[in-house]
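From the methods appendix. Each design record in this collection lists the tokenized structure first, followed by the designed amino acid sequence. Records were kept in a plain field format so they could be parsed without special tools. The example shown here is representative of the layout used throughout.

RECORD:
FOLD TOKENS (114 positions):
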């Protein structure tokens, strides 16, 4: 089993440094540097990463931008991905109406209103 860390838009994976320092050394892990990849689309990046994984099962930890890459990896690798952890991430960008969410009253308040 391997833990695969996919970074956010900065592509470096620096966010994972403190977390990785607290993972036991015997656990196989890899931080993917998106800046070193040739691929540009989510699907292409996932295919490039899948090619490097080999035949082992993986746990994917995806931060922000890489959420969609993790989703595409699941489509490519299927059952070889045992778990996916999304950190402040997304699979698709929110719709245009999402920007109004903060302006809407809370549902609890709306249900209790006279």
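DESIGN:
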């Amino acid at each position: 089993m391997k833990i695969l860390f996919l970074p956010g838009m900065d592509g470096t994976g620096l966010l994972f440094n403190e977390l990785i320092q607290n993972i036991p050394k015997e656990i196989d892990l890899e931080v993917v540097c998106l800046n070193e990849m040739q691929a540009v689309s989510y699907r292409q990046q996932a295919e490039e990463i899948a090619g490097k994984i080999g035949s082992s099962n993986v746990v994917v930890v995806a931060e922000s931008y890489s959420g969609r890459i993790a989703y595409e990896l699941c489509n490519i690798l299927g059952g070889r991905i045992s778990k996916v952890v999304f950190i402040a991430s997304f699979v698709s960008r929110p719709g245009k109406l999402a920007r109004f969410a903060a302006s809407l009253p809370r549902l609890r308040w709306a249900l209790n209103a006279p």
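APPENDIX NOTE: Residues 39 and 48 are 7 Å apart (CA to CA).
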